[in-house]
Structures are given as structure tokens and as C-alpha cells.
Amino acid sequence: MIVENRPGAGGTVGSEYVARQAGDGYTILMGSVSTHAVAPSLFARLPYDPIKDFTPLALVATIPNVLVVNNTMPVSNMKDFVGLIKREPGKFAFASNGNGTSNHLAMELFKATAGVSLTHVPYKGSGPAMADLLGGHVNSMMDVVMTSYSYVRNGKLKPIAVTSLTRSPLLPNVPTVAESGYPGFEAIVWFGLFGPANMPADIAGRLSRELAAVLQGKKMTAYLTEQGAQPSPMSAAEFSQFIRKDMAKWHTVAVAAGIKPE
Questions:
Q1: Nearest 5°: phi and psi at 47?
Q2: What structural domains and CATH numbers belong to the chain?
Q3: Is the N or C terminus of the chain more exposed, i.e. has fewer CB atoms within 10 Å?
Q4: Rounded Cα distance, 246 and 262, in Å
């Protein structure tokens, strides 16, 4: 297998490339929540249709975000976090990896759910955002668990809650947002494998079966868990419905947050 990186525009460059390839099973895409669920709400001229131009093969894994705050904030749980923000609306800010990124939308969903006001400070990537959070220039951030884990473990950041419906194996003592007073709240990152839309059913079926066998194997399950990812086996048909629902969810969040496609 040859891995060809085609970065750019939040993964949409590589996604467009795969969408235009032959459906012979030799070219597949590692897509994500960004390329298939969020991108339609961000790009006015997205060069592919996330549903029509791809054949969903397998959901690889889901990864929760964790809501973290720096040590300048005198809070350590969701009740205190929300209470502080409501007492002093407009005073606090949150970082994101950039406008319209998945962790930006995750925080917008939380703001709407909890009824709180936080100023958004977008950065050009995770590194600068994390640096300013650690430096006290912003107060909070939704971040994938694997990148925040070391800072939480070393006491440089305080975890408030994770955004999956179940607790993260990396942070088993950190409650979910859902169990912290907001039932049903979920804002996860996911990665999945896709083929072009014109892939014959027999090829797609075989790829899905073989990929499922690998992803559900003990070695791969252990590896994903160590990275803070949660294996999420589902059929190709279930994966297709999962994508449709996630597209609709993040479109609603983007519209409510005033994010317009560019």
C-alpha cells in the first residue's frame, strides 16, 4: 500500500482527488468529519459531493474532544465552569484551530446547549492555539484527547469534560458533557475510509469486510485505544447514514453560529 498525502483546504484537496478516480478498489480515501460532515457548510464551492461522489467503506474510529481550561480559571468541573461564564458574560475566550474547524463547531454547539457566551479566538492550527491556552491568553478550548492528554497529566491544563457519550479510556476519571448536566451532548471527531462513487458492489463489499476484520482485530483495537481513539465498528450502510446525520447536525450548528460558506 502506498500512502499519498495530498494536504490542503482541510482535507478537501485529497478528497476531490479520490472522488475523481476509478472505482477499481486501488484508490481509497481516509476521510474525516472535516472532509465529509463539516466541509459542506464551510465551502460555497466544494469540489465534490460528500454523499454522491463516494462509496463509504468503513468507519475507522471516533475521537472525543475534551473541554480544557488553563490554570488561570478557578474551576475544575462543568457546574463551576458554566456558572463562572454566566456570572461574567463576554469576559472569557476560547481557542480553536481556525474558523469552521471541528473544535470550533464543537464549542459553538456547547455554547448553544449550555446557553453561555464565550469569545471565539481562531488560530492557524492546533499548535498556536494550544500555546496561547497554556500561556493564559485564552481561557479554554475543545481539543482532541490525544493532544491535550500530556498537558492534563502534567497538571498544565484542567479537564472539564469529554464530548463523547461515554468516557475516554485515556481520561477515565473525566466525566462526559452528557453526564455533567447536558444529556445527549456529543461532538466527536471521526475518521473513515471511502472509495469513489463508481465502485462496483462486489469490490466495495470485499473491501468493507476486509477492513472491518482489521479494525476489529486485537492489535488494531489496542493501537487505536492507546491513541485516544475509540473503535466504532458499523456496516457500510450504517456508516453512510451516520455521515448524513452528522452533515445535518453540523450544518445546523454552523448556521446558528453565523458561519457562512466561503
A1: -75, 15
A2: 9-62+189-256 (3.40.190.150), 63-180 (3.40.190.10)
A3: N
A4: 20
pTM of the model: 0.91
132 burial via Cβ count (<10 Å: 0-12, 13-18, 19+)? middle
Please give the Cα distance from 171 to 16 (Å, whole number). Answer: 36
Size of the chain in residues: 262
Crossing angle for the helix pair 126-134 and 145-153, to the nearest 10 degrees: 20
- CB 19, CB 51: distance < 8 Å: no
Grid coordinates standing for 139?
A: 481561557
- Tell me which residue of 110, 250, 246, 123 sits closest to 191, measured CA to CA: 246
Name the amino acid, one letter, at 139: N
Catalogue the E-assigned strands of the chain. 29-32, 54-70, 93-96, 119-122, 140-144, 157-162, 188-196, 230-231
Three-state secondary-structure class, residue 259: coil
Could you list the pLDDT tens digit for every one of the 262 residues in the chain? Answer: 777 777 777 788 999 999 999 999 999 999 999 999 999 998 989 999 999 999 999 999 999 999 999 999 999 999 999 999 999 988 999 999 999 899 999 999 999 999 999 999 999 989 999 999 999 999 999 999 999 999 999 999 999 999 999 999 999 999 999 999 999 999 999 999 999 999 999 999 999 999 999 999 999 999 999 888 988 888 999 999 999 999 999 999 999 999 888 7
